[in-house]
Amino acid sequence: MEGIDFGKVFGIGSKLSYDALLIRKSVFVNEQNVPIEEELDDYDMESYHFVGYLISQPICCARLYMKDNKWYLGRVAVIKDYRGKNVGEKLVKHIVSFAKNELETSEIHISSQVNAIYFYKKFNFVEYGDKYVDAGIEHISMKLNLE
């Protein structure tokens, strides 16, 4: 899908971070039944929030934050009508480029829902550790080496 403009902001309180929260609420809370109190957490205040806009409509989002001296990609979400149109791929590529070029990090970690493992493998994320349940959904840790 062409014409997606990506915006980024650090922390919360802006229109962009609000747009990200609306997408997350739609995808994770409404569709996947994640409790809102689990969806919102303290990492939101210390994250880069990314939103993809198509003709000024927010259609995808993700966040990138540091924990234990590692960068974590999370809350990757695409509005239902735009799934299967390479929107998620463009979003992840945009964030990986930002992490590599702006943050100069050598790796990115993600807590992937098990049903999204093959999506992340397209970017060369690799699984590590055992599967676990988070917010009632099975997950696995993955990481991407950027060197």
From TrEMBL:
Keywords, sorted A to Z: Transferase
Tagged with keyword Mitochondrion: no
Molecular-function GO terms, alphabetical: acyltransferase activity, transferring groups other than amino-acyl groups
Residue span(s) of domain N-acetyltransferase: 4-147
InterPro entries associated with the record: Acyl_CoA_acyltransferase (IPR016181), GNAT_dom (IPR000182)
Keyword DNA damage: no
Protein name: Acetyltransferase
Organism this protein belongs to: Spiroplasma tabanidicola
